[in-house]
Amino acid sequence: MATAEVPPPEEPVLQEDDPKTILQQRLRTVLLGLPSFFKFSNHISGVNATDLYSLNGLLGASIEGQVVKALNQQRALWDPDDEWLGYTFERQSQAFPDVRLVRKGASTDGIEIALGIELKGWFLLSKEGEPSFRFTTTAAACADHDLLVVVPWYLDNVLSGSPVAGEPFVASAKWAAEYRNYYWQHVRRTNASTDIASPSGAKPYPAKADLIADVPAVDGGKNFGRVARAEGLMTDWIRTTNQTEVLGIRIEDWFLFLKMHSDQADPSDITLKLYEEVLRAKDGQAKRQAVKAYQSLMGLLDAYGVDG
Fold first, then answer.
1. Which single residue of 166, 220, 250, 264 could bond 152 by disulfide (Cβ 3.0 to 4.6 Å)?
2. Annotated domain spans of the chain
3. Mean of the per-residue pLDDT values for the chain?
4. Dihedral class, residue 254 (left if φ above 0, else alpha if ψ from -120 to 50, else beta)
């Protein structure tokens, strides 16, 4: 059985005067301010409430494309002194990292890479209630300045409207890969082998055909790489993000409401469960919040013709 006696990994120590370090720090600031830069003009409507989770697959690539566009449009913030002229962010869905800051025609290979971002989107009303992507890339394939970025998003009217970005998760990609393995080998409780095989010769900015994935000896549940489940990696961020209020109700309450219906429960049972949440609320503030959510969700029941 694995234990947590081994200390967790820490983010790479970067040289403060390295131009790439300064660039990365500025990009982190820009990424955290992404909600104010994010623009998506398409309006989504006509999707059944119980089918909303499918939007993650339908719009995921477009959302990630909009993030790349926003980064290029905010060049003045991450390159105020024009030190990276000629460099632009490009997305390559089959490569790692899938977003790279590149300058073409700058070397014998025809391209020069400043740093990379492994970019993932998370639709907040997807079935899992947490990011579901798998990140299996070995740490050796991550450059010290590369980032793992997860962008949460939702529709501004919950069931319809335009996509809105929330504050993303931003961390060193190398650290995330090392922490994933640390969790797998030293934190999770299991009696099975915790060995992980890493590919030899892995290096940053690999070609598409290169082997760069860590492979566990035993993974019966296919959970290796599900970094959202690695306690301590993005746990606090997920919890905070699920507190986001849309139309006055927390995302986690919208999620629970829609999940009840997706499970095809009897409408009367759903109403009873929602009312029980109100009764279970301990203090006055929690009770008022539960009542507010209950009343709003009952309005949704009426809107969708469900007899509560």
1. 166
2. 19-246, 265-303
3. 84
4. alpha
